[in-house]
Specification:
The protein is of the alpha/beta class and 247 residues long. It has helices at 47-54, 77-84, 102-112, 114-117, 124-133, 149-161, 179-196, 207-213, 231-235, 240-243; strands spanning 7-18, 21-32, 36-40, 62-67, 70-71, 87-90, 167-171, 199-203, 216-221, 224-229. A hairpin with a 2-residue loop joins strand 4 and strand 5 (70-71).
């Protein structure tokens, strides 16, 4: 008998407006433990705004967000910073520090979050473990300008993994990559979920990525969770708004 998975993120009736532009208009979402949840929507539909609300970078106009049973909107800044060590964020552009080597990029979050790990004299074991998880142990001394686009994405993922987060938020993880590298990143995301038992929200326009990675999908349309289900369930929908994503 399968164990019932507990929610790790709960979003209730989220609203966010910028001037006259209503981006989120009562959005609801649940991410369960150990789940890969894909969120798809048109450009400007509010996907990135929703993610920023989850990690406290944007403040919603109304609604509530619970992350690991803590309501984000009611937390002190210090508590939010501590909670963020449990949330890995893979940015669309990888966001590596150009002036730092791969080793230094991975060491940066360890130096910054000493409260979680304490003072670490030798970071090499943690850096190597993270790099081995993404298959790039030999890149430890390279600079970002020596890396391909796919390698940069892997290193950024290694930097996320080094804090051993419970949740990973992926923002367009395959954008700008060739089809072969995209498949490699998708396989890597799946292996990370299996190895670390992470819970993930994946924002993507890539239908192949969604099909391969999603345990469940949500389409964000008109500021709400318009429809949700498995990839096959949504792909079989006769709703023109839904079918527009799969053609």
């Amino acid at each position: 008998m399968e164990t019932k998975k507990e929610p790790i993120i709960i979003i209730n009736d989220l609203h966010k407006t910028f001037g006259t532009n209503t981006v989120l208009n009562g959005f609801n979402m649940i991410l369960n433990e150990g789940e890969n949840l894909v969120v798809m929507g048109k450009s400007g539909s509010g996907k990135s705004v929703m993610i920023k609300c989850v990690i406290g970078l944007e403040t919603p106009d109304s609604g509530s967000i619970f992350v690991m049973n803590k309501e984000i909107n009611r937390l002190e800044r210090e508590v939010i910073d501590e909670l963020r060590t449990e949330i890995g964020f893979l940015f669309q552009g990888s966001a590596l520090y150009d002036s730092m080597s791969v080793r230094e990029n991975l060491e940066f979050p360890l130096r910054r979050h000493t409260k979680k790990f304490g003072k670490i004299e030798d970071t090499t074991p943690l850096v190597m473990e993270a790099l081995e998880s993404v298959g790039l142990a030999n890149a430890i001394n390279l600079m970002p300008n020596e890396l391909s686009g796919g390698m940069k994405r892997r290193i950024a993922l290694a930097r996320t993994l080094i804090l051993k987060p419970k949740i990973i938020l992926y923002d367009e993880p395959t954008t700008g990559l060739d089809p072969i590298t995209s498949k490699e990143i998708i396989l890597l995301m799946k292996s990370i979920q299996e190895k670390y038992n992470t819970s993930s929200i994946i924002i993507t326009h890539d239908v192949d990525c969604a099909k391969a990675i999603a345990n469940r999908m949500i389409l964000l349309i008109d500021g709400i969770n318009y429809i949700e289900g498995t990839f096959d369930e949504l792909n079989a929908s006769n709703d023109p708004k839904v079918q527009a994503f799969f053609k």
